[in-house]
Write a structure and sequence with these properties.
Elements: E1 2-7, E2 10-15, E3 19-23, E4 32-35, E5 38-43, E6 46-49, E7 58-68, E8 72-78, E9 83-89, E10 92-102
Antiparallel strand pairs: 1-2, 1-5, 3-10, 4-7, 5-6, 7-10, 8-9
């Protein structure tokens, strides 16, 4: 059984027990978050596709941890003008585990 969900403006294909990193959620570690933006659910070989979402379907995610991703460097410069700007960024994420898919 799998589902396609949306959280943080991105879509994920999830199964029960999967661990994934999503955009930061406002929840504490140990909390259970309910996602109702479910676009498709497959159960026993039968695929239900929503228009745009599947009615009554939801996915329960358990928050395990919060963190920051790998640092990326933004470097801007203009040749011959002595203009240089260096900036770093680390994207915040939430690590979640899929507890249940309810369809």
């Amino acid at each position: 059984m799998f589902a396609i969900i949306e959280t943080g403006g991105k879509q994920y294909k999830v199964q029960q027990g999967d661990v994934l990193k999503v955009e930061k959620l406002e929840a504490n570690p140990g909390d259970v978050v309910e996602i109702d933006r479910v676009f498709a659910v497959s159960k026993d070989g039968e695929l239900k596709v929503g228009a745009p979402t599947v009615e009554g379907a939801k996915v329960l995610l358990k928050v395990e941890d919060h963190g920051k991703g790998k640092k990326i460097i933004i470097f801007k410069y203009k040749p011959k003008k002595n203009y240089r700007r260096k900036q770093g960024h680390r994207q915040a994420f939430t690590q979640v585990r899929v507890e249940a898919i309810q369809a």
